[in-house]
Amino acid sequence: MDKTFIKDLLVRGIIGIRDWERVTPQDILINVTVFSDITRAAQTDDIAYCVDYSALAKKIQSHAETAARLTVEALANDLAEICLLENGVTKTIVRVEKPGAVRFARSVGVEIERSRVD
């Protein structure tokens, strides 16, 4: 299966359980890999058969900036569902991180894998 990815998409949104996290937007780092068959896109050089990563990135950014989720787990699941709605996408891996959330750690977060059959 072929992969299309969005690497290190940095957005700002409400995420977390602490009182200050519910009112102060934080950096959220998102990485997404979507799996699809890009054979036809490669053979025809036609964007109609590609995963539109620009449009997908905009959907992910918009949701992450407005969802105001309590947990990175819930946000990651939301984003996986958005990815699986894309034409031709059969599987996705979504990684959501909160940079600087834990002292002495560059980042913390979760990585999930979802398929259309999940």
Question: What's the topology here?
Answer:
Layout: E1 2-13, E2 26-36, H1 39-44, H2 53-66, H3 72-84, E3 91-99, E4 107-115
Antiparallel strand pairs: 1-2, 2-3, 3-4
Helix pairs in contact: 2-3
SS-based class = alpha+beta
SSE sequence, one letter per element? EEHHHEE
Rg (C-alpha, Å): 15 Å
Largest sheet: 4 strands, antiparallel
Can you characterise this structure?
The protein is an alpha+beta fold. The protein has three helices and four strands; from the N terminus they run ββαααββ. The chain has helices spanning 39-44, 53-66, 72-84, and strands at 2-13, 26-36, 91-99, 107-115. The chain has a four-stranded antiparallel beta sheet with strand order 1-2-3-4, with helices on one face. β3 (91-99) and β4 form a beta hairpin. α2 (53-66) packs antiparallel against α3 (72-84). The chain is elongated. The mean pLDDT is 96.
Features:
118 residues, alpha+beta, 4-stranded antiparallel β-sheet, 3 helices, elongated
Q: Short summary of the structure?
A:
This protein is of the alpha+beta class.
